[in-house]
Write a structure and sequence with these properties.
This protein has 255 residues and is an all-alpha fold. Helices cover 80% and strands 0% of the residues. Helix 8 (166-182) packs across helix 9 (191-217). The protein is flat, with a radius of gyration of 20 Å.
C-alpha cells in the first residue's frame, strides 16, 4: 500500500477504537463528555472520508456517520443548553433538560445507527485494501490534495461574499479545519491558519448557540428571563466573528 493509504487505514483504526470506547462510556453513563466525544470522533471520520468519495465503502460509511450525527444532535443541543442554564443558577430548568440522560445515552449506545457505523468501520480497511489491489487508489495523495483544495476554494468564495451565510461559513470552516487535521502531511494550513480556523469556528459556534436558544425561548416560557442576555451575546458574537472572518480571509489570500 502507498504511504497515504497506510495513513488512512491507521486513522480509521484509531477512530474505530475511539468509537468503541465512546459506546461503552455511553452505555455505562460514566461521564458527561461521552456524547460530545462520540460526535467529535464521527466528525473526524467524516472529514477523513470526504476526500475519498468514489472509493468502495465510502458512501455507505458516510451515510452511517451522517445518520448517527442526526440522531445525536438534539441530545447534544439539550446538554449544551442545560449547562448554560445551570451556570445561570436556573437549576430546575437545567436539570429538567438533563433528566433521563442515562437512558438517552444507553439508547445511543445500543442504537441501530451506531451499530451500523461500527460494522462498516470494521470492514472498511478491507474495502480499501481490495481497492488497492484493483488499482483504484493509485495517486491517492493527489486525489485527496485536489479535493481538499476544492474545500479551500469554497471557503474563500464564501468569505468573499458580502452577504455570506454564517451557517454555511461555519460548516465550510469546520470542513477545512478538520480536513487539514485529517491529512496534515499535505500541509494545507500552517499553525497560524489553523488557529484562525479554530477561532472562527468558536466565534460562530457561540453565535449559533445563542441563535438556537433564542428560538427555543419562543416556545419555552422558563427561558424568557434569558432572552435579553442572549440577544446581547448574539450581537457581540456577530461582531467578534466578523473580525475573525476578516482576518481569516486575509490569511487565505496569502496562502
Amino acid at each position: 500500500m502507498s504511504a497515504m493509504l497506510d495513513h488512512v487505514v491507521s486513522q480509521i483504526l484509531a477512530l474505530q477504537v475511539r468509537l468503541l470506547a465512546c459506546r461503552e462510556r455511553l452505555a455505562a453513563d460514566t461521564d458527561s463528555e461521552a456524547l460530545h466525544d462520540l460526535r467529535i470522533a464521527v466528525r473526524r471520520l467524516r472529514s477523513l472520508l470526504r476526500p475519498l468519495q468514489g472509493l468502495p465503502g465510502v458512501e455507505q460509511l458516510e451515510d452511517a456517520a451522517k445518520a448517527l450525527g442526526t440522531l445525536t444532535t438534539p441530545l447534544r443541543d439539550r446538554e449544551v443548553l442545560a449547562a448554560e442554564l445551570l451556570g445561570r443558577g436556573m437549576t430546575e430548568a437545567g436539570l429538567q433538560r438533563l433528566a433521563g440522560r442515562g437512558k438517552a445515552f444507553a439508547s445511543v449506545a445500543g442504537s441501530a445507527q451506531l451499530t451500523r457505523l461500527l460494522v462498516i468501520v470494521d470492514a472498511f480497511p478491507l474495502f480499501l485494501r481490495a481497492a488497492d489491489r484493483e488499482g483504484l487508489v493509485d495517486a491517492l495523495d493527489k486525489r485527496i490534495d485536489k479535493r481538499l483544495d476544492k474545500q479551500w476554494r469554497k471557503l474563500r468564495k464564501a468569505l468573499a461574499d458580502p452577504a455570506h451565510d454564517r451557517h454555511r461559513l461555519r460548516l465550510l470552516i469546520k470542513r477545512a479545519r478538520y480536513g487539514d487535521e485529517a491529512y496534515p502531511q499535505l500541509e494545507h494550513a500552517g499553525k497560524k491558519l489553523q488557529g484562525l480556523l479554530k477561532k472562527a469556528q468558536g466565534d460562530l459556534g457561540t453565535w449559533h448557540d445563542r441563535l438556537q436558544w433564542l428560538l427555543q425561548a419562543r416556545e419555552h416560557a422558563e427561558l424568557a428571563a434569558c432572552t435579553l442576555d442572549w440577544e446581547q451575546q448574539l450581537h457581540e458574537a456577530e461582531g467578534k466573528s466578523d473580525v475573525t472572518l476578516d482576518a481569516l480571509q486575509a490569511a487565505l489570500k496569502q496562502r
